[in-house]
Amino acid sequence: MELIKDFKDLWRGVALALIISVPAWFLGKRFEVIGGPVFAILIGMALGLALRNRAGVSDATSAGIKYTSKKILQYAVILLGFGLNLGEIAKVGASSLPIIVSTIATSLIISFVLCRALHIPRKISTLVGVGSSICGGSAIAATAPVIDADDEEIAQAISVIFLFNIIAALIFPSLGAMLGMSNDGFGLFAGTAVNDTSSVTAAAAAWDGMHPGSNALDYATIVKLTRTLAIIPITLFLAFWQLRQAKRAAAAGTGTGEAAGTFDIKKIFPFFILFFVLASVITTVFALPVAVTAPIKTLSKFFIVMAMAAIGFNTDIVKLVKTGGKPIFMGLCCWIGITCVSIGMQSALGIW
């Protein structure tokens, strides 16, 4: 009976997110440099603006929209783990590790400094820093539930990442040619300095088109997957930081509502991250073939698009525009920092 009641409460919002996500998915396939998640957020925002104040719409869809933006987003992250064969990534990605670590550290340090200097909200800063440094939308999807970010914060971070993804995908191939990069050098550059997987592949594919016989796309993809592994330590660190803060609040009795004077690890710790790790281990130990992992990865990506559709629908676009200046500046600084460090490290190590 409880399951039937949940279905009655949820199906309208989930169905709305599904309806939005289908055209967004195909638009993302058609325009890969933009990607389905961005189209989903934009369509969701437009529909939200048109329908949110219409009588009955918000009440009928709110539970399902919330479920999609939170739970389905977590399911997407878990399924994402099936696309990570840790053994294969270790073989090819180890050589790029110093540059990956340097670029990730650069982005996180810049976001931390600007958060303090410009008084940017902590959760927005965390999402922009993590999204810039690791893997764009996927990293934001994994991090948002851990730090309990709301829909507007997620939408804002995704929008910032999207802006600089587009710029990078358009200008990096020409920049790499101007700097005289080798094919592997550009693959490493694209894999470490471009945020989102779709934009990494777009930039590397453009390079391959400019240099027939190049394998930059394959190399960039492996480097990007190696970066994706950083989701695990960073989200776990954030989770333990949240636990520490919650314990302090509970001990001091300064929390609000149920949190005051109580501490429940089941409600705070993001166990879905452990399932993400387990999925990666299963893929590695059992050497799951592409025929098995490819459909799971596709479903994961579709779930992310669904979640972004719900987040877009639940986001006040007017407020987003008004408060977007500082996060965009932070995204710009992170992007420039990562780009310069990636180029500088390659030059120092003599890779190109």
Descriptive account of the structure:
- By secondary structure, this protein is mainly alpha-helical.
- The protein has 17 helices and no strands.
- It has helices spanning 2-30, 36-51, 57-80, 86-93, 97-118, 122-133, 137-147, 151-178, 183-193, 197-210, 216-228, 231-252, 265-268, 271-285, 290-313, 317-322, 325-349.
- The protein is globular.
- The termini are far apart.
Topology (SSEs and partners):
Elements: H1 2-30, H2 36-51, H3 57-80, H4 86-93, H5 97-118, H6 122-133, H7 137-147, H8 151-178, H9 183-193, H10 197-210, H11 216-228, H12 231-252, H13 265-268, H14 271-285, H15 290-313, H16 317-322, H17 325-349
Helix pairs in contact: 1-2, 1-3, 1-15, 2-15, 3-7, 3-14, 3-15, 4-11, 5-6, 5-17, 6-7, 6-8, 6-17, 7-8, 7-12, 8-9, 8-10, 8-15, 8-17, 9-10, 9-11, 9-17, 10-11
